[in-house]
Amino acid sequence: MFCDLIFPSSSMCIQCYYIGATSDAATKIINEVSKPLSYHVPVEKICEKLKKKDSQICELRYDKQLDLTTVDLKKLKVKDLKKILEDWGESCKGCAEKSDFIRKIIELMPKHAPAAAKARTDL
């Protein structure tokens, strides 16, 4: 199916599964989602109708995407800092303060996000 080819292992896969766009999906409501979207029906209205069939569809959320070249790490929550490290496959053993996580991210940025590391002036 469409999503199996386009998004083989991503958070989009979850959304594809819920609308029936994957081969292993339990429901097939893809037309009930895509047609109203193509007619520019507000998402709230689509969710209202779909809640009768599958209430989980409108509870799905994307992860927040961060631009590491411009984001102020000091303004991020510790949860977001941990997520950056987790996405990189790293951990911060012994980190107790927010500043510890920021220090670790700045230390690892040249390895995992070299373009962002070059663009930042605070490193």
UniProtKB/TrEMBL annotation:
InterPro entries: ARMET-like, ARMET_C, ARMET_N, SAP_dom_sf. Residues 16-66 form the ARMET N-terminal domain. SUPFAM superfamilies: SAP domain. It is found in: Secreted. It comes from the Eukaryota. Keywords: Disulfide bond, Secreted, Signal. Residues 70-112 form the ARMET C-terminal domain. Belongs to the ARMET family. This is Mesencephalic astrocyte-derived neurotrophic factor.
